[in-house]
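pinging the channel bc i need a second pair of eyes. not urgent but kinda urgent?? the chain im working w is below, pasted from the shared doc
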Amino acid sequence: MLLLKLAFKNLIGAGVRSWLNIFVLSVSFVVIIWTQGLYNGIWNHSKQLLLSYDVAGGQYWHSGYDTYDVLNINDAYSKVPSQLNEQISLNKAEPILIRQGSIYPAGRMQPVLMKGIDPNQQVSKMPTYLLAESEHPFPILIGKRMAKETKLKKNDTVMIRWRNAKGGFDAAEAKVIDIMMMDVPAIDSGQIWLSYNLLAQMMELSNHATIITLAKNSTPLNLDSNWIYKSQDDLLIDLKTWMSQEKGSAFILYLILMSLAIIGIFDSQIFSLFKRRKEIGTLMALGMTRKKVIQLFTVEGLYNAILASVVGAIYGIPICYWTLKNGINLGDQMENYNFAVSSIIYPVYSVIIIGSTTAIIFLTVTFFSYLPLKRLHKLKPTDALRGKWS
C-alpha cells in the first residue's frame, strides 16, 4: 500500500509532464474504442441490410451465373429444381430470373438487368407487393441509386427494350410504381425489378430461374450440378474483405497514437532515472531493495494508464454516447462504396472492445515503463547517492 501511495505522489508531483502523457494516452483510449465501435456499427448494419434484402439464408446460383460477367448472363438460367417446389410454395425459397435489357430515360439508352421476382414473396424485405397492387400492365420497382442514375421518379414511365426468346427485340412502356429507399447496391444500381410471371412470359422461360434465394434458417439441399449453393459467408465475403482492409488502415492510426503515448512515458521513465538518482540511492540506503525500486517506477508508469482511462472516460463517454444516439452522418460519400452502407452510421460498443483495448494499453504501458528500469539491477546505492551509474 505504501508503494502505491508513494508512486502516485511521485507521478502527480511531476506536474505538467505527467498530465501531458496522461492526456495523450487518454486520446489513444478514446479514439481506439470509438473507431472500433464505428467499424462494428458498419459491419452490423451492412450485414443486417444484406441479410434482409439480398442474401437471406443463402442462395443457389446457376453454374453459369457470374455477377461480374454481365455479357453472358442471358445464358445463366435453368429450370427450378423440383426438390425446391415445396419450399417455394411455403415461401421458404424464392426463384429470381435475371435477363439483360435496356431502358431509355429521357431518350438516353442505359443497359439494365431485369430481375423477375414473385410479388408475394416473403424471403426479402423488398416491397415487391407493390407490383401486385399496381394496375399498370408493366409495373417496375427501382432503388434510390438507380433513380439517381436515371433521374426517374415515382409514377414516371420509361421505355424498356429486351431481346425475346426468339432473338428478336421487343419493347414496352413501364411505369415506376415506387422508389425503394434501401442501401444495398447489389440489388439496386443498374437494375429494375418486375413480376416474375411477367418476365418469364416475356422470355418464354416459365419455371426457370437464375438464382434461388432461401429464407433465413433454411436447410440447403443437394441439387444437380446446374446449381451451386452459396452460403451467407460466401455471399458476405466482399464485405468481410473490405472491413479487413479498413481495419488494417485504422490499425496504423492506433499504432501512431500509441507510439506517441508510449514514447512520452518511456522518455519520462528515462528522465526520472537520471534526475532521481540520489532519491533512488536514498531509498536503497534506507532498506528498499532493487526489486522494490523497480516496482515503484513500474507502478508510476502503470498509473499513467489508470489515470488516462479515468480522464478518457470523462470526455469519451459523452462523445461515444452522443454518436451512439445520433449516429455519424457521412453524407453522400458512402454512395461511392459498392457496399450496403447507409449515410448515417451508428457505432456499436461492446464489453469486449472496451475490455480488450484497456487490457492491451495497460500491458503495453507496463512493459515500456519497466523496460528502462533494467539498469537498476546493477545499480549500487553508493553510486546512486553520488549521482553516478554503476
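so The CA atoms of residues 359 and 365 lie 10 Å apart. and The radius of gyration is 32 Å. — does that match what u expected or am i reading it wrong
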